DNA sequence: GTGAAAGCGCTAACAG
DNA sequence: CTGTTAGCGCTTTCAC
């Protein structure tokens, strides 16, 4: 903190000790519910703390023990799915002393490294990484330094826990829904991925795999049609343009993410096509927006809230016990059918 | 950070000093570009830092100087307008050593206090508060402790800077647009506010005032019609229901925020009314979503990006010079006309 | 059950 | 220009 012109100096543990007539050691112990404090001492210290409005300095604590600070790395505040995850994390942490801080805007390995370093520099007690793109080796090194939980990445490191939704199954659910409506030409828009390792770990790749697999299962293998763009609104727009330009355009477009589906809707609106009359559209993530009546997007729900609370639970466990073997939690998605999908013409 | 089983102990300033063959003071000085370092020493230290991969501990620094950490308090990650602000803040900070951390989910004075305390406990060098609801006295006390910039609140404290968009004028712009299209029965949905002080400081109140004022100016005083709900999607939905149930329902609804307008669109869709054929709809904030073709919402643009970068600039200035008089920056909004507004039937 | 004392990694006086 | 020294506020042995 910045020193003010000799205004109120911050209350320290020494002040509390003096006020309570005990040692600083005693205060420290009471504050941390440590062993070796008498009820009498506890009450005296508590009273002094309240009276003086004492708050422990996290910075000073950091030099010896923990900071009671957790960091969440968010790729993008704009993706509403991440907000659901945050809700879940926050809810689990509400009853604890931990305080959560997040960063956003990490979209490449370099800025991810910068941010995680910054979190370590600040002695955070644990990290939750949402959909990181860094190479597995980097994540591993990181997790060796600080307890870490990774969300949205199908890794199997012994050093950190992972929480994921089963993207392969989720994509299958949506293909089943569309096929059940009678669609054959069901196209998919995927997030273009070149990195070999990430191809196996990133949800986008698994969704595309799930799509392919399900298409085959429904006897629609010949109709597999994938536009490879990005998981953004623009990516959806361009993906739709590509698909609509086919000789035989699809009757249903399954976008790998809701934001992509929104871009698809933009393109269809522009092309004067009706939804779901001319083309059915489905997304993935079930962002809050998908439920808006004006949009009413059929989507796959990932239970972001549960993902978040699970991650928080695992992180606290790992902070308490470093040696616990790493867990890989996989949650089950569900299809949410709304107004943008219907039978083909 | 949590100590690992005797794995790599973190590199400290002592290690660097030994490696470079100089004192820790020297290292510290070089790192902070302080006065009194020879080129030769600088290069030796820099080399040692790189070789050892040394990173200063923010926790240790905090006990003496600054932490190079700034905090942003965000009421709600889901409001996309805040993302624009964050972009602006982040951009201004990119060239600096400062690292930004944010919290979200502060929707009442109690949780705001909890979060700001947490930031102070962690020795953050400066705070940016976005649309705080705490009483002015609390903000004042806070700003006495740590350099603070408040966004989205028309206060005039000598202790902290404020950055705002001119909400009064913005509301007037939208009324002018709708009146210019030929609308008379232009209704407004406001965020219900009871607190007397906040009535004068909060943007929502100023927007409602601006609406009233502009209606009078356009000779539409008799048509002033306000539904008082909340700045949420639900608030918009219910506000629209209220307005549509009037004997003489409005031909245009000006919502105090884009999220509210989205709820209005929901209600209109449900009621089978066309937009803008039956009813024109306008929002406020120009969130990214408003630009989506599938929505195409007419709105007031607040230049969130500029708000953010201005706030960051002011905060850094204030950290450097505590005595600089507080600034109140007011930016000018613009109307963005899209597809949800048109002439009345 | 309780407290004295050492020290976490860094910065700021102050000598040299 | 450079290094020695004394803390910052807390936790943690380790005596008592």
From TrEMBL, chains A, B:
Xref: InterPro entries: HTH_LacI (IPR000843), LacI/GalR-like_sensor (IPR046335), Lambda_DNA-bd_dom_sf (IPR010982), Peripla_BP_I (IPR028082)
Lineage start: Bacteria, Bacillati, Actinomycetota, Actinomycetes, Micromonosporales
Keyword set includes Transcription: yes
Organism: Actinoplanes italicus
Alphabetic keyword roster: DNA-binding, Repressor, Transcription, Transcription regulation
A matching Pfam family: LacI
SUPFAM superfamilies in alphabetical order: lambda repressor-like DNA-binding domains, Periplasmic binding protein-like I
GO MF: DNA-binding transcription factor activity; transcription cis-regulatory region binding
SMART domains with a match to the protein in the record: HTH_LACI
Name of the protein in question: LacI family transcriptional regulator
Limits of the HTH lacI-type domain: 11-65
CDD domains membership: HTH_LacI, PBP1_LacI_sugar_binding-like
């Amino acid at each position: 903190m910045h020193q003010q012109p000799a205004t109120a100096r911050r209350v320290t543990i020494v002040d509390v000790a003096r006020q309570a007539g005990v040692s600083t050691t005693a205060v420290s112990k009471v504050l941390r519910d440590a062993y070796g404090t008498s009820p009498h001492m506890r009450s005296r210290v508590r009273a002094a703390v309240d009276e003086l409005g004492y708050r422990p300095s996290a910075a000073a604590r950091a030099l010896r023990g923990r900071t009671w600070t957790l960091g969440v790395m968010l790729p993008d505040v704009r993706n509403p799915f991440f907000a659901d995850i945050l809700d879940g994390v926050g809810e689990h942490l509400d009853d604890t002393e931990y305080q959560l801080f997040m960063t956003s805007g990490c979209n490449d390995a370099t800025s991810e490294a910068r941010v995680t370093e910054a979190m370590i520099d600040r002695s955070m007690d644990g990290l939750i990484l949402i959909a990181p793109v860094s190479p597995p080796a980097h994540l591993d090194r990181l997790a060796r330094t600080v307890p870490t939980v990774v969300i949205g990445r199908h890794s199997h490191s012994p050093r950190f826990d992972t929480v994921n939704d089963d993207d392969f199954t989720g994509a299958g659910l949506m293909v089943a829904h569309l096929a059940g409506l009678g669609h054959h030409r069901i196209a998919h828009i995927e997030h273009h991925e070149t990195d070999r390792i990430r191809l196996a770990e990133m949800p986008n790749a698994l969704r595309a795999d799930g799509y392919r697999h399900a298409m085959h299962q429904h006897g629609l293998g010949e109709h597999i049609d994938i536009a490879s763009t990005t998981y953004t609104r623009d990516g959806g727009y361009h993906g739709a343009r590509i698909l609509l330009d086919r000789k035989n355009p699809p009757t249903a477009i399954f976008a790998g993410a809701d934001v992509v589906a929104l871009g698809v809707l933009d393109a269809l609106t522009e092309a004067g096509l009706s939804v779901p009359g001319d083309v059915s559209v489905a997304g993935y993530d079930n962002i809050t927006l998908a439920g808006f009546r004006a949009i009413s997007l059929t989507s796959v729900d990932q239970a972001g809230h549960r993902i978040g609370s699970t991650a928080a639970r695992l992180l606290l466990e790992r902070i308490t016990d470093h040696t616990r073997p790493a867990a890989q939690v996989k949650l089950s998605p569900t299809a949410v059918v709304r107004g943008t999908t219907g039978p083909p013409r």
